Structure formats: C-alpha cells, structure tokens
TrEMBL record, chain A:
Keywords, alphabetical: Cell membrane, Membrane, NAD, Quinone, Translocase, Transmembrane, Transmembrane helix, Ubiquinone
Organism: Umezawaea tangerina
Name of the protein this chain belongs to: NADH-quinone oxidoreductase subunit H
Primary enzyme class: translocase
UniProt key word Endoplasmic reticulum: no
Function: NDH-1 shuttles electrons from NADH, via FMN and iron-sulfur (Fe-S) centers, to quinones in the respiratory chain. The immediate electron acceptor for the enzyme in this species is believed to be ubiquinone. Couples the redox reaction to proton translocation (for every two electrons transferred, four hydrogen ions are translocated across the cytoplasmic membrane), and thus conserves the redox energy in a proton gradient. This subunit may bind ubiquinone.
Underlying gene: nuoH
Superkingdom, natural source: Bacteria
UniProtKB/TrEMBL annotation, chain B:
Protein name: NADH-quinone oxidoreductase subunit A
Taxonomic lineage of the native organism: Bacteria, Bacillati, Actinomycetota, Actinomycetes, Pseudonocardiales
PANTHER family: NADH-QUINONE OXIDOREDUCTASE SUBUNIT A, NADH-UBIQUINONE OXIDOREDUCTASE CHAIN 3
Record-linked NCBIfam families: PRK07928.1
Primary role: NDH-1 shuttles electrons from NADH, via FMN and iron-sulfur (Fe-S) centers, to quinones in the respiratory chain. The immediate electron acceptor for the enzyme in this species is believed to be a menaquinone. Couples the redox reaction to proton translocation (for every two electrons transferred, four hydrogen ions are translocated across the cytoplasmic membrane), and thus conserves the redox energy in a proton gradient.
Top-level taxonomic group: Bacteria
TrEMBL record, chain C:
Phylogenetic classification of the source organism: Bacteria, Bacillati, Actinomycetota, Actinomycetes, Pseudonocardiales
Lipid bilayer topology: Multi-pass membrane protein
One annotated GO biological process: ATP synthesis coupled electron transport
One Gene Ontology CC term in the entry: plasma membrane
Subunit structure: NDH-1 is composed of 14 different subunits. Subunits NuoA, H, J, K, L, M, N constitute the membrane sector of the complex.
Source organism: Umezawaea tangerina
Annotated protein name in UniProt: NADH-quinone oxidoreductase subunit N
InterPro entries found in the cross-reference section: NADH-Q_OxRdtase_suN/2, NADH_UbQ_OxRdtase, ND/Mrp_TM
The keyword Transmembrane appears for this protein: yes
Function: NDH-1 shuttles electrons from NADH, via FMN and iron-sulfur (Fe-S) centers, to quinones in the respiratory chain. The immediate electron acceptor for the enzyme in this species is believed to be a menaquinone. Couples the redox reaction to proton translocation (for every two electrons transferred, four hydrogen ions are translocated across the cytoplasmic membrane), and thus conserves the redox energy in a proton gradient.
Annotated family: Belongs to the complex I subunit 2 family.
Transmembrane segments: 20-40, 47-70, 90-110, 146-163, 199-223, 243-268, 280-301, 313-332, 339-356, 368-387, 408-428, 448-472, 484-506
C-alpha cells in the first residue's frame, strides 16, 4: 500500500488534526529555533546569550513575540495600503503550505485509523515545495515595493534576484534525486533510500542543495537582502508589530522547510539511520520515525546557525557569481553525468553505485581545483560607451588627493613665531609639500 | 481527482486565517501615537527623498537580465523533471535527447557568460 | 536496483532525419553561430559569421535537394516526429523559397559597404538621443548577433510551414517571432523610430500569439487533439457544439492573419516596416509572409476544408478589406517604406484569395505568388537602402524626385520592380496574380476577383506615381545620393530583379513545381 493510498482514506478529523499539528510544530520550531540560534551564536562568541526569561532563557522568543503584538503598527504615508497590508500574508501562507508534503514519520495508527505521518502525498510533491518558495518571493517583492521607501525596495529587488538565482541550482540538484527515485513524490523518495541514502550516492547534488538552500532562505552568509550595514533591514524596514513578526515567522518556517526537505531528499527522511533498526526493531516504528526526522532536520538547522556564527557576509557580486557561474554549470554537468551512468548501468555492465561515488569524488576534487584557478582577465571592450544617467555617481577608483593650491602665507610682521611654525608643520604632515 | 489536494487547502486556510488575523489585529492591539516623522519613509534619520523609487523609477537593468535568465533556466528545469522521472524508461534515446537539450541551453549560457551577463559590479 | 532492468522502455518516435535535415542544419548553425558570438574575438566575428551562414545555406539546400531529388517511396511526402511535422511537396517548395529568400536577406544584412559598419547598432537599449547613442552611431565595428537571430527566425519559419499540429505551429511561431521583434529595434539610424517599431511589433505580436493560443485551446476542446488531421476528422462527424469550433477557428486565424499582415490586422505593418533596419524589413516582408501564408494554407486546407462554407464568407470579407486598405491607404503615403508596407497589405489580400480557393490551382498559385513576391520585395528594399543622404536612408518620396537623372540604372531597376508589384505583364507579379485569380474564378470567387482587379488598378496608381516622380521631376538640389553598393547588395538586387523577370517570362517550370503535389497529413 503506497503512502498516497494510505492517506487517501483519511477522515476529515484526522486531516484537521494533522493540519493543526503541523502548524503548531512549525510555530514551536520557529520559537525554539530563534532561541537556539541566539544561544548557539552566543556560545560561539563566548557570551551567555538569552538567559532571563523562563528556564535558562528558553522562553525569550515567546516573550519577544508577545511583545511585538503590543507594538505600534505603522504604515508609512507613501505606502500602498492594500499591498502593504497583504504582503506579510502572501509571504506567510506558502511557507506553511510547503511543509504539508514533507513526510515526517512512517506508518502509524492514530485513534485506530491507519495512516502515515504526512499531511499529503502528491505525485508532484517536490514541485509543491519549489512552487511555494517561488510564491513566497512575491511577499518579499511586494512588501518592498509597497513600502514606498528606497531601502525596502532595494532589499526586495536583491532578495528576489537572489532567491530566483539559487532556486535554479536547487531545482537542478533535485533532478538527480528524482532520477533515482523515479518519482517526485516525497514519500517515494524516502522509500527509495531504504538501502543507501542519496547523500552518499549523489554527493554533488547534496552539496549544491545545501548551498542553495542557504541562499534561497536569505540566511548568512547570503543575507544580503537585509544587510543591515547597507540596507537597514532590507525589505521589511518599514514593517513593525505583528506584520514584522509574520515576516520573521515566514523566514524561520522556510528554514525549517528547506531543512526538512534536505533530510527527506538526501538523508532518508524518517528512516532509521546507521542501521540502528537491526539493533532494536522498535526504532523502525512510525512514531520513532518522527524522532529521526526531527533529529535530521535539527542537524540542518544547526548548520544554518553554525554558518551564521562563522562566516562573514558575502559581497553581492561574489554571491551571484557563486550561484550562476559555479552551482548552475556543475549541476548541469552532474545531471548529464548521472543520466549517462544510469543509462550505461541499465545496459548492465558495472556497478552503478561504485561508479557514481567515484565520479562524485572526482568531480568534487575538480571543483576544488577550479576554485584555485585565478579569474581570467576580461578584455576591455574598446568600443564600450560609458553609461551615465542610469547608474550611480561613483568616484574614480584611482582617486588621488588633489594638490592643495599654494597658499599665500599671510605676511603679518608682528605675529609671534610659534603659531606659524605650527601651521607649517601641519601642512607638512598633510603631505602638502 | 483533486481530492488529494484537499489537505493543502486546509493548510492554506489555517495559515491564511492566522496571517490575516495577525495583520488585521495588529493596529488594534498596539498603541497608536500619531507622529508625522514616524509615518515618513525611514532613511536613517535624513530627510526622505521626494521620489522614493530608486534612480528616478529606473531599476538597474541587471535585475531584468537575471529575471530573464531565471525564466530560461526554470523552463529547462521544467523539462528536466519529467525526463528524470522516466529516465530509465527512455533509455539511451532519452539520454541523447537530454544531453542535446542541456547543450542547447549551454550555448545560450556560454554566450551570456562571455558577454558579461552574469557579472555584477 | 535490480528492478530497473525490468522497466520496459518507452518507444521513441520514428524520426526521418533525411527529411528534416534542412531544419536541423539551420538550427544547428544558429547554435554554432551563438557560440561564435561568445568565443570569437570581435574583429573575426563578421567574417566567420558570413562564412558560416553561407555554408549553412549551401548545406541546407543540398540536404533539401538530396531529399527532394531522391523520388523514392516518399515522393508525395511523409509525416515524421509522430506526426508533428509533415514534409510534403508544398513544404519542400516553401522550404526552397524560404532558403532562397533568406539567402537574399542575409546578403543585405551582411553588407557593410552601404552603411559603414552595417545597418545595426550594438546597444539597442540605449536611450535615443543621449551621448552614448550618438557615440554608438559612429562606430564602424559590425554587430553580428543579427546572424544567429536571422538563422533562428528562418528555422522557425521552416518549422512553421511544416507543422502538422497546432502546438508545433505555435512554438514555431514564437521561434520565428521573437528574433524578429528584437531585430526590428536594431536600426543604426533613427533609433527612436526603430525602438518604437520593435515595441509595437512585440506588443501586437504578443496579442496575436495569445489569440492563436486561445484559438488552439478552444479547438483542442472541440476536437480533443491539436493535430490538424484530427481536427479535420472531428469536423466530419459533428455532433459537437460548433461554437467551440468557430470561436477557435476565428481566434486561430486572427493570429495567423496578423503575422501575414493581412488587413484589418495590418496596423503594425507600416510602422514596423518603416522603423526596422531595411535589410530586416526585407527579411520580414519576404520570409515572414511566405511562412505565414504557408501556415494559413496548411491550416485551411488540412483542418478546415470541410467547414469552408461556414468560414469562407468571413475570409472573403477580410481579403476585400485587406486589398482596399492596402490600395487606398497606399495612395496617401509620402514615405517609400510605408508605401511598400501598404502594398504588402494589398498583396496579402491577393494571396488570401488564393488561399481560400482550396483547390490545387489555388494552392500552386499562392505558392508561386509567394516566391515571386518575395524576390521582388527583397530587391525593392535593397534598392531603397541605396538612396541615402547624410542622415541615412532618404525614404521621403519628395527626396526621390528626379532620381532617374542622377542614377538611371537604379531608377530603371526600381521602375521594373514597381511594375512587378503592380502586376504588369512580363513580370512575375503579373503571372502570380493571373494564376491566383484564375484559380479563384474556377472556384467560384468571381466577385472577389473583380474587387481584386479594381484594387490592383488603384494600387498601380501609386506605384506609377513614384515612377513619374523619378523620371519627370527636377531633382532637388540637396537631394540624396545613390550609394554604390558592395558585392552583397548588388547580388541581392540583381538576383531579385532577374528572378522577377525570369518568372514573368518563363513561369512554367516554377508553376509545375509549385503544383507538384498537395498536403500530406
């Protein structure tokens, strides 16, 4: 019995329980994640972090959330009323919907009803996640546009460009997985990893996915849309109160979703890791699957925090170069290579797993080597016309401090000696010789 | 036929209700203390620029380029997914076709790359 | 992983590579051409592109010749790619026509001597009138992206005339349109007009594509298939609602008529013909018209022949409208390129008469007309590109006054071409009109032919007006000069005029060839 058939006869009450359960899970994960992030980053920076509210400070994010609700809700005069109002909703809804297709546990029985720990299992499951993440961009762009203010607009533009750039790499990395599972349904993908997780089989895909999931969620070191040193807060600069809280919620829910998808696609989802199932068959129980799943997801969430605590923010051009010039070509080559290996394997010559693993290692080494190569100098186009008017005024890079005009020394006869000497020495120290 | 999608609708409704409730309730829960400066666009304390749209309404053209490239590659992805699902059934024929397809997109990609379409300054 | 081996393979469709080789060659060359643009240094690009394009035409022509000359079991034509593409006698005729006309246009496009550095700008997006815009007008390096664009457009046209289902047709329509939209905006002189032309063509073209697609959807709802043959079958055993059929047909045909610039869907034609770089105008006027009418012929003949009693009246009206609009508005034009544009609207009306005849004579007549008209048009635009002053081409009619006194050869050639457009005997235009009208009379469209004859007479007036202006007016003192063309433009004009003459004097071989067979589906 496939998961889809199992889920098809879920009664309405069970569906509602699952919906509420997933919703609560995501909200709790968000509250937990904010706190966890602050604590871990604090530990990395040798400071205590939040430790006042609740046991060990674990209720800090809840308190923050409640506090946000009682803050003034500001809508700038220049803002577009309805779009400004709806943008947080648009960015929040897809974040939750995307999680619906993730299998969070195996087959269980709830109040005597056989079912799987998953809300829906669609034949296009993976596409639902990608589609939702695309729709989420609308929330960001519209919020930036509707604010009627330059910083949010720039942040929104950057964010949109960033998300769509990394969505390409993310989508391409999933293609390899689909080739092995013969299905885009998330539960089928988990089941196809019964023998061997795809992280081993498709390591380049995994690496690309992990990098692009960080880019896709606008997290450090790719958090350029909200680079506070340049753009204040990015697209949500003008938002306050619960509207701001919704953006925050959506961002963290998205993080949870992409982490959950990562464990589903590459780490075997809810399946028991490291052959522990052979030690005690209870590990393979459907409810235990939930534990494994959450553990794997938390691993990825920890990676998010780890990255944030470790890496400085990238420059925008570096970031786009990584996306378009490194991840995309590697993905494309890798997909063709995987397709080739599968076609050869089906003609029945050699072991595909060995081959793929070797290929992955070779490719990884090649990528590392290519990163060492110096960037080729782009030839200057002699016919290029300098564009002005559209860009921003930029001082020339070879700016020299202009020579100060020779000053006429005031000829004052009965001036005391001291101050004159001071002036002269000052000028000398300015380099004006 | 669309019955499997029903739970998605429930999820949509729940998330939507929650979000709508939040944005609607926010002005009523919080305090309201009118202040002209508060309602201006936030520009780190300096006078807000009269035309808030950046660069007199003109965006850097690189964003448009990125958007178009995204569409190009997104469509490539759209074709790669069905191929991936039935890659084994298509056999060698499918392999040749997909290699040709990726190569064709690769030509356009090489052109954009060489002409600096992927560079941000 | 063992279960994989048991998966049964999906059978790939049969592909007759020899039949579609010309299209594959053109498309492949377009891709190589893009790579040339990417990897060759700037100074080598023009030469490389010209050589590549010439080789492409030779290769595609050879492949086509080999296939058509084989005369095997597939003599009357085949369908391939699971019926998506048909290669039959009309398609082969149209492919040859497209390749020949495309070759002529490429010659005009590749010319660098008439306008130093070619007729194209490097940065089409620069705002007209700015410093950058003036700077790029003086550059003499040729911008060569136009070669791959032309090849892509040409390949799209070749697929368009061979498409045997509506979806393939739609994709081909987009492949042929998108490069054209872009190329319209590349004129080196009069940037604002050129950009306006590109935007106008793009917006209206997008509308037309949407119409086409909507019609396609409705027809799919009617027939349950996008294949032309299946639609034809569905119209035979008809217990379904005709609303879907005729709404779908109407929308589909609007999309097609737009591309063929048949009035009243011609609104873009004058502006685009005037604003686009003249070599591109030649390419559009000749090749797009061939492709569009090739598509119209196939759709009408294959899919809707059985229902022709219902729709023929409407297209009858459209043909009349087109001829009247073209002839009457052409009279009022003061710009040569706009005048030729209205003339092309009138010609589209004549071609539509042949297309709705739905007989063998109608088919062969229309095909012949397309061949003849295409060559004449390319030569006309070649000549127009030669009459220049300091601002570029001098297209205002008053500037053409007394041109015969300055350049008798050019005026003579242009006179001959205008007479061909007017349909005077001993030119291909006459033969073309004759065969189309004869076919129409045979099929009972005599009243339409009368209207067409009146329209031809009116149109002849504005062609003659230009001739009179060239021969019997005093040249203006600050009038334009006639540039001595380089080899490419000379060849294009000479061949165009020569074919116009040959087809007028000895049309039988082309007529036989055009009538060699019908559509296969």
């Amino acid at each position: 019995m496939t998961t889809a058939e199992l889920l098809a006869d879920d009664p309405i009450w069970l569906i509602l329980i699952k919906v509420v359960g997933i919703f609560a899970f995501l909200v709790v994960m968000t509250l937990f994640m904010i706190n966890w992030e602050r604590k871990v980053v604090a530990r990395m920076q040798q400071r205590p972090g939040p430790n006042r509210v609740g046991p060990n400070g674990w209720l800090q994010s809840l308190a923050d959330g409640l506090k946000l609700a009682f803050k003034e809700d500001i809508r700038p005069v220049l803002a577009d009323k309805w779009v400004f109002f709806l943008a947080p909703v648009i960015s929040c809804i897809p974040a939750f919907v995307a999680f619906s297709v993730i299998p969070i546990g195996g087959e269980v029985s709830i109040f005597g009803e056989r079912t799987a720990l998953q809300l829906v299992d669609l034949p296009v499951g993976v596409l639902v996640v990608l589609a939702c993440s695309s729709v989420g961009v609308y929330g960001i762009v519209l919020s930036g546009w509707a604010s009627g203010s330059p910083y949010p607009l720039l942040g929104a533009l950057r964010s949109a460009a960033q998300v769509i750039s990394y969505e390409i790499a993310m989508g391409l990395s999933i293609v390899g997985v689909v080739m092995f599972s013969h299905s885009m349904s998330t539960s089928d993908i988990v089941k196809a990893q019964g023998n061997l997780w795809f992280v081993v089989l498709l390591f380049p895909s995994f690496a690309i996915y992990v990098i692009s999931m960080v880019g896709e969620t606008n997290r450090a070191p790719f958090d350029l849309p909200e680079a506070e040193s340049e753009l204040v807060g990015g697209f949500h600069t003008e938002y306050s109160s619960l509207k701001f809280a919704l953006f925050f919620l959506a961002e963290y829910v998205n993080m949870v979703t992409v982490s959950a998808l990562a464990s589903t696609l590459f780490l075997g989802g809810y399946q028991t890791p490291f052959g522990l199932g052979s030690l005690w068959s209870g590990f393979d129980n459907g409810w235990f699957g939930l534990v494994w799943f959450v553990a794997k997801t938390l691993f990825f969430l920890f990676v998010f925090i780890w990255l944030r605590g470790t890496l400085p923010r990238m420059r925008y051009d570096q970031f786009m170069r990584l996306g378009w010039k490194v991840l995309v070509p590697i993905s494309l080559v890798w997909i063709v290579a995987v397709a080739l290996v599968r076609a050869l394997n089906n003609s029945g010559e050699f072991s595909q797993q060995q081959f793929l693993i070797i290929l992955g290692v070779v490719l990884g080494v090649l990528v590392l080597l290519s990163l060492l190569l110096p960037d080729r100098k782009v030839e200057e186009d002699p016919n290029a016309v300098p564009i002005t008017g559209g860009g921003f005024p930029v001082p020339p890079l070879d700016l020299e401090v202009p020579k100060a005009p020779t000053r006429r020394t005031p000829v004052v006869a009965n001036l005391p000696k001291e101050p004159v000497a001071v002036t002269a020495s000052k000028e000398a120290s300015d380099g004006d010789v | 036929m669309l019955q499997p999608y029903l739970p998605l609708v429930f999820m949509f409704l729940l998330a939507g209700a929650f979000a709508l409730f939040s944005v609607t309730a926010a002005p009523y829960i919080g305090p309201r203390r009118y202040n002209r400066a508060k309602l201006d666009a936030y520009e780190c304390g300096i006078e807000p620029s009269p035309a808030p749209i950046v660069g007199g309404g003109r965006m850097p053209v690189a964003y448009y380029l990125t958007a178009m490239l995204f569409i190009l590659f997104d469509i490539e992805m759209v074709f790669l997914y069905p191929f991936a699902v039935s890659a084994d059934k298509l056999g060698l024929f499918g392999l040749v076709e997909i290699a040709l397809f990726v190569a064709t997109v690769g030509f356009a990609y090489a052109y954009v790359w060489r002409r600096g379409g992927l560079d941000w300054n | 992983m063992t279960f994989l081996a048991q998966v049964e393979l999906i059978k790939p469709p049969e592909i007759e590579y020899s039949a579609i080789a010309p299209v594959l060659i053109v498309l492949g060359a377009a891709c190589v051409s893009v790579l040339f643009e990417a990897f060759l240094p700037k100074h080598q690009r023009w030469a490389a592109q010209v050589v590549l394009t010439m080789l492409t035409f030779i290769g595609a022509g050879t492949a086509l010749g080999l296939y058509a000359g084989a005369e095997t079991t597939t003599a009357q034509g085949i369908t391939t790619l699971s019926g998506a593409v048909a290669v039959d006698r009309p398609v082969i005729f149209l492919w040859v026509t497209l390749l020949l006309l495309g070759f002529g246009s490429i010659l005009l496009i590749a010319d660098r001597s008439v306008e130093p550095g070619g007729a194209f700008v490097a940065d089409a997006a620069v705002r007209p009138g700015t410093v950058q815009d003036r700077a790029q007008a003086t550059r003499t390096g040729m911008q060569t992206e136009v070669f791959p664009l032309t090849l892509f457009a040409l390949a799209g046209m070749m697929v368009f005339v061979a498409a045997n289902d509506l979806l393939t047709m739609f994709i081909a329509l987009e492949v042929l349109s998108l490069p054209l939209y872009l190329m319209c905006g590349l004129a080196r002189r009069r940037r604002l007009l050129s950009q306006e032309a590109a935007v106008k063509y793009f917006l209206l073209g997008a509308f037309a594509s949407a119409f086409f697609l909507y019609g396609l959807a409705l027809l799919y709802g009617y027939a349950g298939s996008v294949k032309l043959a299946d639609i034809a079958t569905a119209t035979a055993g008809s217990d379904k609602s005709d609303t879907l059929l005729f709404a779908g047909f109407g929308l589909l045909v609007v999309g097609l008529l737009f591309k063929a610039s048949v009035g009243p869907f011609h609104a873009w034609t004058p502006d685009v013909y005037q604003g686009a770089p003249t070599p591109i105008t030649a390419f559009m006027a000749a090749c797009t018209k061939v492709a569009a009418f090739g598509g119209i012929l196939r759709v009408l003949t294959v899919a809707f022949e059985r229902t022709n009693w219902e729709w023929r009246g409407v297209l009858w009206g459209v043909a009349v409208a087109s001829m009247v609009i073209g002839a009457v508005l052409g009279l009022t034009q003061t710009d040569v390129k706009r005048m030729v544009a209205y003339s092309s609207v009138a010609h589209a009306g004549f071609l539509l008469i042949g297309s709705i005849s739905l007989t063998e004579q109608g088919l062969s007549g229309t095909l012949f007309y397309l061949l003849a008209y295409g060559f004449t048009t390319i030569a006309v635009f070649g000549v127009i590109s030669l009459v220049r002053n300091a601002d570029g081409e001098a297209t205002h009619l008053s500037q053409w006054a007394g041109l015969a006194k300055r350049s008798p050869v050019l005026a003579g050639v242009f006179t001959f071409l205008l007479l061909a457009l007017a349909g005077i005997p001993l030119t291909s235009g006459f033969v073309g009109k004759f065969v189309v009208f004869a076919a129409a009379i045979q099929d009972g469209l005599a009243p339409l032919v009368v209207v067409a004859l009146v329209a031809s007479a009116v149109a002849a007036f504005f062609y003659l007006r230009v001739i009179v202006l060239m021969y019997f007016s005093e040249p203006a003192p600050d009038g334009p000069t006639v540039t001595v063309p380089g080899a490419f433009t000379t060849i294009a004009i000479t061949v165009g005029a020569a074919v116009t003459l040959v087809l007028g004097v000895w049309p039988s071989f082309a007529l036989d060839w055009a009538g060699a067979g019908g559509f296969i589906f």
